Amino acid sequence: MRNIALLIALSIGYTSSVFADTGAGAVGQNPFGHIIFLGGFILIFYFLLIRPQSKRHKEQQALIKSITKDDEVITAGGIIGRVLRVSDQFLVLSIAEGIEVKVQRHAVSATLPRGTMKDI
What we know:
By secondary structure, the protein is α+β, with helices and mostly antiparallel strands.
């Protein structure tokens, strides 16, 4: 353990002394290389993470806005029901004969084809 700590301390001391040598003969690095690398990293981050997430969010918002009476939906909690009433923030679902549940609109995760509740 002491040997590893000594090795790390020596390597830090060596690298700091190497990079500290910025005499008249030293040539500086091109800063545009770092900028290009950072820009490429940001583009990869955007196309792999941000863009797909915003696309899913837009699709979910369109789904929530398109819900109408008599649609069959499944909620985020796994409850399947038929929409009886629609308001700005809430839906009233019929999950069984005579049983109605009020849920928030954004809790709907998907719409189902008509007749799915009868098949289950």
